[in-house]
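User: ok so my PI wants both of these folded by tonight, can you help

Assistant: No problem, let's get them done. Here's the first:
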Amino acid sequence: MRTRIASTVLAAALTPLALTLSTPAAHAVPAAAPYDFNGDGRTDLAIGAPGATVAGQAKAGAVSVVYGSSTGPKSSTRTLLTQNTAGMPGTAEADDAFGSALASADLNTDGYAELLVGTPGEDGSDSNDGTVTIVWGSPSGLSGARTLFSFFSTDYDRYGQTIAAGDFDNDGAPDVAVGSTGPTTLSLVAGPITKTGAHNGGSGTGKDMWSTSYGITHLSSGNVTGDGHPRVIMHGRSAGTDDAVTTLADMEISNYTDWLQNLPAGYVSAVADIDRDGYADIAVGNDRETSADPAGALGGKVTVVYGGPDGRDTTRVPLVLTQDTAGVPGAAEKGDRFGSGVSLGDINGDGYADLAIGTAGENSSAGAVTVLYGSASGPTTKGATSYTQNTAGVPGASEAGDRFGERVTLTDHTGDHRADLSVSAPGENAGDGAVWSLRATATGPTTSGSTSFGPSTTGISTAGTPGYGTALNS
């Protein structure tokens, strides 16, 4: 059953068409955490290389999955995925860009998380239709796949340029939200989603506020209102410009009133409870200069918006962070790109989500990462630290163009209930790309025992510019 949501003004009431849903099956086991593909209680690391050459096809794209261990991501235990992998739908073709976007959830609630991979360059009924592939978790890791349902292929292109997963319609089954370009910029594929079952309906929306040529460029989600029902943060560009637009969306099908709330404009975001008040907060990264985007800042900025029972807590002033903020390492300089990547996770195990911020343009785009810690009053600059490839113990050396910090992720790879810091530099080695992982401790990330690896270590060709780490666990 096709469902289309159409809207023309911000926060307007919307009217859905018919929707087919089914009751989710009873959960036999607890659902796995996102990115725990083998159900061992350790988060695995998925790394997208959309520029990878596969079987001679330039920019066909590939994804490496490195499994967690007691010492962090272990590159010797890994899975390589391309569209030529046995059991994967489709065929690797030039410019498919498989691995441009990644997301994860235990879609079939069997105790093993699934991996969703966006392939926005895939040709279908026309060029660059795009597709999303579901790769199934199992006790031995990822195995087997199917294509995510696509309801509106004539109304969008680049389906899968961004993805998020969670129970967005609040019916007890995980759903998938997919960004695209064209008249339909956001699609919701309703759960439950199983290996062989029929689809359970879906919806799509396009708003005049969005540039249809850019579409929805980034998605994140979390329990902003504290009710257990995740909301979605959507990023795009303003119609008629390339300025950022960011909104908070409630995608529950029965509620279209106040469906969107404006957020500070940016290009990436992360969601978690920084101040431990039961409401997830939103960190929005805008790495552009004001000359390129009126909402930007010299050297870039990150804005923290506090969550509350109605979504954005309008009683609290958002916290704006730059490299000129007292206590933040460094100084705001043109082109630093502070906020190129953001992630939230509890590094030191104190119950407050901490904030990792990528600064991919720092020092002629060598790059850097800054870590700020959570507290009862929000992020604090007390004890803030910065890491580069020149930091003692971090493998490699800072070089112009590496873009260390283009993407960052905080997640527990070791199973010790602390979030480890993983960082990508897609420009490393003239565009080969690489990923670093620093283990978490009670005092923050440690460079002792930190690891780094690139595409060749995990089976990806270095022909062309694979851009390893263009996408990381979201």
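One down. Here's the second:
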Amino acid sequence: MEIKSFQFLKNKGWNLKEFPNLDSEDTLVLIFAAPEFIDFQEPIIQLANFYSNSKIIGCSTSGEIFGDSLFDHSITVAVIKFAKTTLKMAKAEVNHSKDSKNTGKLIAEQLKADDLHSIFILSDGLNVNGSELVQGLNTAKGSKKLIITGGLAGDGSNFKKTWTISNNQILDHYVVAVGFYGSDVHVGHASKGGWDIFGPLRRITRSESNILYELDYQPALQLYKEYLGEKASELPSSGLLYPLAINNPEAHNDAQLVRTILAIDEKEQSLVFAGDVPNGWHAQLMRANFDRLIDSANEAGLLANKLMLKDNLEQLGPVLAIDISCVGRRLLLGERTEEEIESTMLALPKGSTQIGFYSYGELSPFSVGNCELHNQTMTITTIYET
């Protein structure tokens, strides 16, 4: 396995003289690009032409991660040539959020095989219900150990248009994915938030998909405003500071999903979230703790390593780390955003290659089991080949 990473900077160009000569049928090219490159596609076309035999996937972002730094107006690229692992690509259209589960199933069907080890997926960020997308994706679990990770494309803080890349195409309203096949590839994953819980535990007593109407039989928006106090007048933007932690009481574990508010409805007294808020689940408010947000990113890196190689880090060859963090964390952390990127880098084996982007949602299992949609987390996928 060989890894090379490089950048294209707006008004400066590529930061290398020629592309690494790693083109092959078992080469993966990952591209994370600022939204404005939809209007200047030449750098992406150059990559597609040079890596004509490779599998190329990518998406628009809310910030590009390269090494331990954060960039805007750039393209981050990683080229990974595998020695023993085979790759297969898939794509499916998603025109409306109600199509999300079926889109996930279509991706799963295209990639399903006995030796499928893991799937990395990049989705449209605005026309998809991430919770239902992963329900469809999880039908690919022919193997109990199948790992599914990825993220939702971003559009800065504009929330107007996102796009994905499949080989030489820039796609609107599409989900793209790559499957990794064989026993020589090892994939680690972790998703950590670092938020503090506050307020009483409540039950979701009325909801529909990603719309929350009632908590403990009381109007959800009314209750939420009581907790926010003066910040209630700044909704929905102030909701980034106070996401919701939800938990399935029938699961009998402490695993919590985080949900971010996208919109409010004064007439219905409801809250619209970035993912499903199932009826009957428990819910509690969360608030930001800046130091814990940064520390949790480091914890995610350590956990991803542990799951990848069970702490056998001394004999590692090249390791690729793909960081996908929520745009909400970036808006909250502001000038401290690079601290969480630096903290993940510190957790990785020496010599690792780190790339990634800020997203509209993160996809990863908790520790083992099915993939889930996360909001407001730092999610890391680590890849290593024996």
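The mean pLDDT is 91. The first strand starts at residue 2 and ends at 9. Good luck tonight!
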